[in-house]
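Protein modeling request. Please complete all fields; requests missing the sequence field cannot be processed.
Requester role: graduate student
Desired output: 3D structure, token encoding
Chains: 1
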Amino acid sequence: MKTLQQAVRQLQQYTQCIERGDRLLIACSGGIDSMALLHYFYEEKERLHIDVAAVYVDHMLRGEQSKEDGKFVAQFCRARGIQFYTKAIAIADIVAKTGDNVQNVCRIKRYEYFEELMAQHTKLVTAHHADDQLETMLMAMTKGSSLAALSGIRVRRPFAQGEMVRPFLFVTRAQIEAYMNERGLLHREDPSNAKLVYTRNRVRHTVTPLLKKENEHIATHAAQLSIQLQQDDMFLNELAEQYVTQYVKQQASGAYHFEINMFQRMPLALQRRFILILLSYVYKDVNVLQSHALTTSLLTLCSTVNGNAQLHLPNGVVARRQYGNMLIGDIDNEELETRMLLPYEPVRAADYEIVLMQAGTTVLATDDVYYITLTAHEQLYIRSREHGDRIWLKGMEQPKKVARLFIDEKIPVARRQAIPLLVSNKRGILSVIGVRASVYVSDVQQCHQWQIVIRTIAL
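Delivered output (459 residues):
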């Protein structure tokens, strides 16, 4: 069997995750994996020209046992002159206040403390190994995740001011046990690792043993496959990022848009990554980004330029196909560009097309039509609402605030900025389109010279 040292050096050849002069902060729970990690880099620090420190976080969930774990790590470090950091965090109190998942809170608070310490260190080092990688990949398969998720734990990624690295990802649990036994090194046991209430523990204790009966080297194979997938994924992501940089534009509202024809010319492998990169601009939630169903839905939306359509995505985000373009973002609240309304030149705004034409011109039965006689030098505009806007409604003795009108008409806050206003430079607001019209326009032609046609665009 290959030794732990050989496995670490093999991964180092692939990734160069540990570099000369690094100041390593090693996350150590006192368990067998992290104790092997800490001992290995302590032994190798002269050869690698690195500094080593250790950190232990007590989540205060196991009483005296977790305190003893911390003392164990502290004693190990003290005996070898290793710098040691520790912090106790009352996780139970936080969970009681927030109602969040215990495991999630533990991770968040633990890594917040790690971030605080990174000012003095270049890399945070964790003891994830090949068996962890196999479990992670299997768990991702059960969730229907993206290729990025299926490729498992990254060897290195940005963290705080430096990086987080996992130099044990080619090391198996059996190699760790052999390393510790050969050196007579002790470690602590966390009884929660045996509890089958956690998905990872169920996979570890019930699924992977069956796979290892088929091939005892499956964890090593999974770790090697993971590296290959990550390298391929990184290359394709870099290509997709070039397309995103070149073709995606961000509007003042924050929404992103691109031409669908351009998108369709890309290979499907790049289309998927293009979508994921764009979603990463909109979302910070990794669980959203890893949704295969979400990516597939957006690819389907981009499969044609014909017709208009839209998807409502998580957290109030909208994806809209409109006139050969795709828009993704908080489109319902997108502020409109101010446009002058000129005769027979349609203006598209939100879900409407607005046209000024001579009164009496034939229109569709479904169109809304306002009639108006324009005074000398009067000009019409389409724009979003502005602070202090008022509209004089029929039957009212004085103008009403548009903000109040939205409240009375129960217009959702998220949509208000996207509702177009028809405005005159002489008479103010003529209509809040799709909501109410002012006293300055009529719904009958009579002797008016102009008609304003408002056509709803089918999405």
